[in-house]
Each structure stands twice: as C-alpha cells, then as structure tokens.
Amino acid sequence: MRRMSARTLLGRPLALLSLLAAAAAPAPAVAEGGGPWIDWLEGVSWLVDAERRREVAALPPADREAAVAAILDADPLPATAVNELRQAVAARRRLMFSEVLSVGDDRARLLFLHGRPASRRVVDCPGVFRPLEVWTYGGHQLLLYRQPAAGYRLWLPFDSKRALYTDEVEFWLEEWEAVGRRYPGRRADRALCADAAFVDRVTGIDGLSQELPEPPDSRALFRYLDPPSDLAAWATQVAVEEAVPGRPLAAELAAIDFPARRGQRVLTRWLLALPPGSGAAPLPASDGVSLHLAVDGVVEVEGALLDSFRVRYELPAEPRAGAAGLAGERALRPGQQYLLRLRVRDEVGGGWAVVSRLVEVPREPDAAPSSLAGSAPTERLDRQLQAGSDALVLLLPPRDVVFGNVRAQALVIGERIERVTFLVDGQPQLTRNRAPFTVELSLPLLPREMVVRVEGYDAAGGLVAADEEPINQLRGELAVEILEPRRGQAVRGAFEARWQVVVPEERRVERVELFVDEAPVAVLEEPPWVAALELPPGDGLSYLTVAATLDDGSRAEDVRFLRVPFTMDEVDVRLVELYTTVFDRRGEMIDDLAAGDFEVLEDGRRQQLAKFELVEGLPLTVGITLDVSGSMMRSLGEARQAATGFLHGIVTPRDQCFAVAFADEPRLVMHRSSDPAAAAAALATLAADGWTSLHDAVVFSLYYFQGVRGRRALVLLSDGDDTDSRIDFPVALEYARQSGVAIYAIGLQNDALDVAARRKLGQLARETGGRLFLIARASELSGVYRQIEAELRSQYLLAYASDRPTGEGYRQVEVRVKRRGAQVRTIPGYYP
Predict the structure, then answer these.
(1) Other C-beta atoms within 10 Å of 485: how many?
(2) Does pTM surpass 0.90?
(3) DSSP for 238-297?
(4) How far is CA 429 from CA 401, 434, 443, in A?
C-alpha cells in the first residue's frame, strides 16, 4: 500500500448537486408556452366562458390547436401594430409563474386574470387553521385556503367554514356550537389564534355555522374566477403594468425518455438544456467558474396538481458539449397524459424561465438506449447493468442535510430480485418483499455522516445486487481532520481513531487509508470514519496518518502524534479560542484594548493568554437563516432586501456566506460562496408559505458549518415560535452550544412571536456568544444588520491553552476587562 503525500490537497471545481446529466443534442426550442394547447391549459382557457371551454375541449387534438390559435389571433385592438392579447397573455403567464407554478392553484388564476392583489394577509395559526391567505381586489377580500396535498382554493360560503379548520379545532368548535355558545370565552379558535375574529369577518360566519349580519356576496367572489368581460380593456390594462422582475433565461426541454419500470409506474426522465448564450451568470470560484441553478417542477393531470419537487444544480459554466444539461426524473402511471412544467432559476444572475411539455407515458418502458445517461442515479444504475441484467439503485431525496425520517426507494431492474433490505451504517432497518420497494428510514434526530445501503436478494436468499450512498457529507474544500485522539492526549496500547473528511460538492470518497509510523494499518471506503488501532511498543516517536482519496484522484491527509520522545515537545497544542466583543454603557464598540486589559477564567481558574488580536481582517463564514413561513409574507420583501445589504457589506473576497430558508422544513438556498451577489440572488427567489420549523432550521444551519474553521456566525431571523420541527428545543440548544458558532437571533415581533419564542431566541444567542435583537417591523432590519456587521468587524480573538488539557464535560468561561464601564460578550463555555 502506497503512502500518500501530505501536499496533494484540493482538487476540482463544484459539480452538480444531484441528477446532473451530460448535455444531449438540443431539440428545437420549446417556447415558454410550448404550443397553443399548452397556452390554453396555462391561462388562455380562463379568458373564455365555460361553454366555449367545453366546445374547445371536445374538439379533436388538431382542431383544438387551431381553435386556440384563432382565439389568440383575434386581435382586440386591430388598429395597433402588435397583438396586445398575445402580449398580455405572455405577461400575465410570467407573473403567474413567478409566484405560483401550478395552474391548479386558484392563486395562479387570480394572478393571471387580475394581476397582483392590492394587499395580502397571511393567517398563520397552524394548530387552528389550514394555511390561509386573504387577497384584496377591488374592495373585496378573497380568502384562499390550502387543500391537503394540493394548491390553494378560493373559499366560497357553500364550501363550509369547516374546510378552513384543522380536524382537532373543528371537533372543539362542534362541541362549542352544541353546548357552549353562551360562553364566548371558551371558543377554541379565538383562544388559540388572534386572527380567528378576522377570519369570522372575512367569511361572514361566527364559529362553524352562524351567519353574521353582513356575509360576503358569493356571486361577487365567484366572479373573480370569471373571464374578463372586455378582452380589449383587459389587454390594455396589462400593457401598462410593471414588468415581472428577473431577466429572461433561455431554456429548452431537449429530450424525454422512458427507460424503465418502477413498480406499477414508468420512469419518466427528461433533460432541460440551457444552450450557449442562455443568459445564466457564472459564479467565479478559486479553480474556475460554475453555474448555480435551481429547478422547481410540477406534474399536473387535467389541471390538478399531482406532484411538485425542487432540485438544485451546480455545473461548469462551459460544459464540453456546449449546452448545460439538467436532468430529472419522476415515476408516472403508464398510459396517462401529464403536463410537466419546470421553472429554472439562475441563483447568481436572477434570470429565470418556465418550460412546459405534455407527456404521454407509454404503457411499457422504451428499451432503446437512453439519451439521458449520466444523471447521478442513472449513472450508478448503468454501471451496475454493465455487470449483468439484474440491478438496483438507491434513490434518496436531494437534500443537503438529512435527519429524522427520510423516504428511500430502490429502483429494481431485472427478474431475480424479489426482496430488498435497507440498511443504515450497516444495520438493517426494513425489508420489502414486493414492489414498490419504498420505506421510511428512521435516522438520528441530530445529523451526522452516514451511509444508507440497499441490498437485493433472490428467492433463495442470495445477494444479487447492492447500492449505497453517503448522506450528510461535510462539503467544502477537500480536507481531513483527525478528531480522536486529541492533540496532546496520552495514548497507550489500544486506542480509537476518529476523523472527518470535507468533500467538494458532487465528489465522493474513494477510500481512506490509515498509517501508523508509515505502516498501513487499515483502509475504509465509507463512514463512519472510526477505527480501532494499536500503538506500537517502544518509547520512540509514533504518529498516525489519515489519508483520504476522492473519486477524481484528489488527496488530503492529516497527521497526529501518538507518542513523543522526552527530548521533543508537542508544539501543536489545541488552543481555546474566544471571539469577544467589548462595548461601553452606550453600546458602542471598544476597539483600543491591549492584551493586558483582559483576564480569562476557566471554571474559576485564571488562564494565560497565548494569542491576542483585533480580528478586523480575519476571514469570516456567515450564514443567513431566514424564516419564510406564511406569516412572513408581509415582511419577507424587506427582510430579503436587508439581508442582501448585510451580505454585501460584510462579505469580502476572504470571507464566505451561505443562505438557508425554512418554513415546513429547512433548505439550503445558496451554498458557501465568497460572492454575496449569488446569495442575494438566491434570497430574491424566496416566497412565504407554510409553517415554522425553527428548531430543525437551527440544527440544519449549524451542521453546514461543520468542517469550517475560523470565525463563524449565524444570523437567524424568525417572527414566530416553532410549529413543525422534529427536534425539541433543548436538543437544538445543546447542539448550538457544542457547535462553536455565534448565533445572532432577530425576533420580528408580532402576534406570533410570543414569550416562548423570544425566550428561545434569547437562549440561542446567549449560549453561543451572539446577541438577540427584538424589532417591531421589518423596516428596522437594516439597522440591526449594521450593528451585527460592526460587532463582527470589531471583535477580539483571545486564545489560551487550558491548564486542564485532559478531561471531558462542559467548561465555564468568563472574560473580564480592566476598564471601567466595559461590558463583555463571548461564549459562556465550551466542550473540550
């Protein structure tokens, strides 16, 4: 076994996160509408009355296309040089798809027919109501509610108010209607939601069924879904509206194929191509440039939403084939026609485009060679098929950090595999004896690097094929860090080695080799990165080397001394680093202190400073974690703008930033980058919707700091308490304490931000050495971000070697300053 060089670090640029395909030869461009019939399905049908819609739908396909073209060509203003109707349809479709991608959502129809509402109000009481929005047009308040597993629907009185409530509150209200109406204070929804009275007024219904004196006019509400009475006036109005932000992006659906059966469904795979000159803006990196794209997609059947998904891609700015290829796949029922709609956004430049295609799924897969070979799952499957006719591939959701429960699926090819077993870190979890081979895996609540594996067995119990995939890999520049044994720790006899590997995006670890005194002792190919080793006998110098090799040949290693002769000193001592802010009684930063002005105590014992400096120029990694739940709709625009200004002000070429958004679940919207404009462009795509998973978002965001050294800060903005997390707050708080990341928590005070939420945000800030800000309105955010920026640029770095180099458990830290009136903010303690 060959010893690796310690100098061969850092290799290749970022590649695709998931489902990347090599570019196929582009087909003729697919316009944003994709043809007259898709134009009809995506808005034109709303411009004619119900009788005309039925007439067109009953025509043969060729005649339908001609009928729709005739409607669009009937220029309502023939005296002008352009067709205002076609222009208006294109403009309103762009507005509609900038906010809502499914035409089965009544919000899309309202945007298409009436443009942006005069006002929007979100009712964010998830324990009481289903997600609700109130849009105002022409003095009418339109209540929209989200249906389970579907889009929003315009509420009308004949829908019954029961449709708005959760099942539990509906039950309580039934009891109140039966026996408690004479006790208004006992009404459940009003006790739990400050907006319950507002919903009563909008619906005109008190409780579940009692009509108020001035109920809304059902016919007036329903007319908002009717076609315009005057198409010429409608087109003229649209012509003077403000354009939808975001420059156009050239994109085309280059290919679709059906390569395999997945259970009772057929795998439908597509390639979305961005041709040269598409308008996508590349992001400069240390070793090249790359494109950062996000694709949102929906699958619809007869105007109803069937499925929705989101995938992020990273790929070279100049692919060898000339076009950038973004591949995706879905399992759809055979013999059915679907409408596939994809919205691709450039996370750097802000451009976006929508492409649509009607997809006829054949009853049997197409056995012809796939034009889309190369996507992450299909690449693995193709490699396995080369070895035989029976294979399987593991499919996991394309998430950046996975914890709690996750759905895994095995795609099986061939006839021999009859039983599939799913394993996590080598331990079997669940077995499926028939298709579909899909399970809900139970993972630890706190994220860590793991390997999910799937094994396929024949009828006799013999292993036919297997596939596996690591999850929660630490991403960044290639690096290896030995965690155990710790530096300076005395090692005797048998010991356990533990390390972490930071892997560039879309690269994987080929192998990790361990050497003790140049002798190979172990080789591992997957996490967990831990090994039981033995210290050689003797009293001479002994050391451990951990060397990682990636699939592209890149290598990195770390070395740890296990035994040092008495004539040598261990010079690589682990220092405790304290990033410390000092301010006066007015809250102004004090930046003229010397090392002698500080006193550091650990568990009450004074420590000797080994390092001291003002950290104005030290590199910083900062994360923005933004609440985008439904209650943030009114504040999100200002919140995004303020966050963008903050990133532009604080991130220099030496720094890095990333962005996380959370509603029902947290998601990474921009990976670590030294370009604040890229993060700002990603933030600009966010929309407010859903519940609040605050605890999960804290853990998700802090995990993304793993493998990052130096100054680290997380800026967390929320306007409400947690309503949807899998992780309890004490667990999230302890995770934050151990992370070493300072949390600057911002509470946007409104009815949702109760005492419990303020307490949680305050604890997160206090226990990590950060700071809590409570503000009344989003317009104050710019000032808050300026204060955070000033603090992060005016900190002191105090470092010391603890007088207790061994031992475990939490250690309390106190920093004192010898200046009258000076106050100090730093972490209250650490774990060695």
Answers:
(1) 19
(2) no
(3) HHTSPPPSS-B---EEEEEEEEEEETTEEEEEEEEEE-TT--PPPEEETTEEEEEEEEEE
(4) 20, 16, 10
Q: Tell me what the mean pLDDT of segment 168-184 comes to.
A: 66
With a CB cutoff of 8 Å and minimum separation 6, the contacts of 447 are 401, 402, 403, 472, 699, 700, 703
Backbone torsions φ then ψ of 696, nearest 5 degrees: -60, -40
User: Tens digits of per-residue pLDDT, 706-735?
Assistant: 877 778 999 998 887 788 888 899 999 999
Helix (H, G, I), strand (E, B) or coil at 756: helix
> What does the angle CA 822 – CA 824 – CA 829 come to, to the nearest 5 degrees?
155
Q: What DSSP element (H or E) covers 409?
A: strand 405-413
**What does the longest C-alpha to C-alpha distance in the chain come to?**
99
Q: Could you tell me the two tokens for 445? A: 């609540």
Distance CA 664, CA 689 (A): 8
The 3-state secondary structure of 35-96, one letter per residue: CHHHHHHCCHHHHCCHHHHHHHHHCCHHHHHHHHHHHHHCCCCCCCCCCHHHHHHHHHHHHH
Cβ proximity of 778 and 642 under 8 Å: yes
Q: List the structure tokens of 667.
A: 């998601």
Cα 326 from Cα 23, distance rounded (Å): 8
Q: Cα-atom radius of gyration of the chain, to the nearest Å?
A: 30
- DSSP string computed for 464-519: EEEEEEEES-EESS-EEEEEESPTT----SEEEEEEEEEE-TT--EEEEEEEETTE
Q: What are the angstrom distances between the C-alpha of 533 and each of 145, 515, 542, 645, 757?
A: 60, 10, 13, 51, 47
Residue with tokens 């997390």: 725
Do residues 746 and 717 lie in contact, with contact meaning Cβ atoms separated by under 8 Å?
yes
- Give the residue carrying structure tokens 């305050």: 762
Nearest to 596 by CA among 615, 612, 580: 612
What is the spatial distance between Cα 610 and Cα 301, in angstroms, rounded to a whole number? 67
The two three-digit tokens of residue 64, written as one number: 């339908």
343 or 676, which is more confident: 343
